[in-house]
């Protein structure tokens, strides 16, 4: 944990402190930011990093080692009266503190403190503000090693993706039956062989199933993939190593050499929307300009609206990527929420616009990593529908 850097950020945000709280490991972010090993946590603990001065903590007497290893004066309590007195001591002289809270739950990934605890802190005359910007600074930025693991995961996932489309093509040439579920299993097997792990998925969807952005095939009832079908594959994985981060992409193809004009047109619209969003980020990065998550969403969504398909793009343009596939940094979002967080160097996110018509859907997803004066797409970029023939 980098106390001095956190305190510098608190002063820049004009905050008096950052108050961490947990009970039954409800807040994994607290443990990651503090570098704290999760314990039993059957009792409440609090830890305040002030904008200046020494941190302070409050733990229950029967779990007195809950904050072991963290700097500062950590005191025990046992009764609810002693807990209240201890919290008053922590917050004495503080007017504005950050907690893992998001007004109106606009950013659910950060909104982890329960309402009752917020009421308790506010009852002591303290204004609670969101820690979302701080979380992005101290939890969402990657190390050089994590970037290298992401790039390696990208090479492996891109290979698995190409192999999956080729397996479909080979089955069609052999007139053999292959289903969405078969391809799903193939990809998972390849991940294991390649030393990668994932939490669920992948999405393998045919025709109208492509129009459900979170569709996943099941062993029973998945569709057979046939000639003249459209196919979407969304796959994400990370290296099976500590602190590895995800790589997450979506590609689409057509089982034939000459895709229908309607399918080709939607692919062209989505590809252009994707490229506009990427260009918006890259231009801002090269100029050293501040850019926010909602502005990237506007770049992609505005183009799709211009083309008359705005009603068929009903999810955000992209999400933060980290050790979890949906990370805790800025999302590219001005639909599900108005994400005003700045895009900062050292963070990665997806750009994945989509158009989902009743008969088929198209999504094109890439990952973008931002450096001080550059933003890069970290893997292969789809420029045309995959010809599955």
List the helices and strands and how they pair.
Elements: H1 3-12, E1 17-22, H2 28-34, E2 45-50, E3 56-60, E4 73-77, H3 80-91, E5 96-99, H4 115-122, E6 127-130, H5 132-140, H6 144-173, H7 180-193, E7 196-197, E8 203-206, E9 230-239, E10 247-254, H8 261-287, H9 293-306, E11 320-321, E12 348-351, E13 354-356, E14 361-363, E15 366-370, E16 375-377, E17 386-387
Parallel strand pairs: 1-5, 3-4, 5-6, 10-17
Antiparallel strand pairs: 1-2, 2-3, 7-9, 8-9, 9-10, 11-12, 12-15, 13-14, 15-16
Helix pairs in contact: 6-7, 8-9
Walk me through the structure:
There is one protein chain. With 389 residues, this protein is of the alpha+beta class. The chain folds into two domains: 3-139, Creatine Amidinohydrolase, Chain A, domain 1 (3-Layer(aba) Sandwich); 141-387, Creatine Amidinohydrolase (Alpha-Beta Complex). It has helices spanning 3-12, 28-34, 80-91, 115-122, 132-140, 144-173, 180-193, 261-287, 293-306, and strands at 17-22, 45-50, 56-60, 73-77, 96-99, 127-130, 196-197, 203-206, 230-239, 247-254, 320-321, 348-351, 354-356, 361-363, 366-370, 375-377, 386-387. Helix 4 (115-122) links the parallel strand 5 and strand 6 (127-130). The model has no long low-confidence stretch (mean pLDDT 96).
């Amino acid at each position: 944990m980098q106390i001095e850097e956190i305190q510098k950020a608190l002063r820049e945000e004009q905050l008096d402190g950052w108050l961490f709280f947990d009970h039954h490991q409800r807040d994994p972010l607290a443990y990651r930011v503090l570098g704290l090993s999760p314990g039993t946590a059957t009792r409440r603990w609090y830890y305040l990093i002030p904008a200046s001065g020494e941190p302070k903590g409050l733990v229950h007497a029967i779990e007195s080692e809950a904050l072991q290893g963290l700097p500062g004066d950590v005191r025990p309590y046992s009764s609810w009266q002693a807990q209240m007195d201890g919290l008053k001591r922590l917050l004495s002289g503080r007017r504005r503190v950050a907690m893992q809270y998001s007004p109106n739950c606009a950013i659910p990934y950060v909104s982890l403190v329960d309402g009752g605890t917020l009421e308790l802190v506010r009852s002591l005359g303290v204004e609670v503000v969101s820690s979302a910007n701080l979380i992005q600074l101290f939890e969402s930025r990657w190390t050089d090693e994590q970037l290298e693991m992401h790039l390696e995961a990208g090479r492996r996932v891109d290979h698995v993706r190409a192999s999956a489309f080729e397996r479909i093509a080979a089955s069609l040439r052999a007139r053999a039956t292959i289903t969405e579920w078969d391809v799903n299993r193939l990809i998972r097997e390849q991940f294991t062989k390649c030393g990668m792990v994932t939490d669920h998925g992948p999405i393998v969807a045919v025709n109208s199933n492509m129009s459900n952005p979170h569709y996943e095939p099941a062993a029973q009832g998945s569709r057979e993939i046939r000639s003249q079908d459209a196919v979407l594959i969304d796959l994400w994985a990370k290296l099976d190593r500590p602190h590895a981060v995800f790589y997450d992409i979506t590609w689409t193809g057509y089982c034939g050499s000459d895709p229908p004009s309607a399918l080709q047109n939607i692919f062209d619209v989505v590809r252009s929307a994707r490229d506009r969003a990427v260009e918006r980020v890259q231009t801002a990065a090269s100029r050293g300009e501040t850019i926010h998550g909602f502005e990237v969403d506007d770049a992609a969504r505005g183009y799709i609206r211009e083309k008359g398909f705005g009603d068929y793009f009903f999810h955000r343009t992209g999400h933060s990527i980290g050790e979890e596939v949906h990370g805790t940094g800025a999302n590219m979002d001005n639909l599900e929420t108005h994400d005003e967080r700045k895009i900062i160097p050292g963070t990665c996110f997806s750009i994945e616009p989509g158009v989902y018509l009743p008969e088929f859907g198209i999504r094109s997803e890439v990952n973008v990593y931002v450096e001080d004066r550059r933003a890069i797409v970290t893997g292969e970029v789809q420029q045309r529908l995959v010809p599955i023939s």
